[in-house]
Amino acid sequence: MAHALIEVERKFIPGPGTEKRLQELGGTLEHQVTFWDRYYDTPELSLMRADYWLRQREGSGWELKCPGTAGVSGPHQEYVELTVEPAIVAQLCVPVQETAPAKLMVYLQRFQPQDYQRLLQVHRLREKPQGTKDPEGNLG
User: How far apart are CA 113 and CA 111, in angstroms?
Assistant: First the structure.
């Protein structure tokens, strides 16, 4: 009979005396691991709003963490973690291939977010409902 593995993760913030108390109890630091994650989402944060977390973990590749079984009760949630790229793409199911953003827009979004937000606001103000004329007489 096969056994399923279940990972239980609980995050906590240790108090100021935690490390000293652990040492008093004989605890030692076995090893320390440092890594970087890069999280990805749409400009509207549609993945995070749906509780989906798409990341590229340094040295591990792509991971998608998404809600698992419904009906889990208690102070925890169950997530499914996908690490195989075809499974991630299938879960996200983005049938329309978006065009790559302009380099300047990506630069502004990353390094000048205030200017990027102002550009988005100006763009929204310029958008007209379909079929209306702009001041130059062109149809929108």
Answer: 6
Q: How far apart are CA 92 and CA 96, in angstroms?
A: 11
CA dihedral sign of residues 87, 92, 94, 99: negative
Mean pLDDT of 20-35: 92
The pLDDT score that the predictor gives to residue 97 is: 56
Q: Is 17 helix (H, G, I), strand (E, B) or coil?
A: coil
Q: 3-class DSSP state for residue 12?
A: coil
Tell which wins on pLDDT, 33 or 68. Answer: 33
Closest alpha carbon to 42 in 109, 122, 114, 118: 109
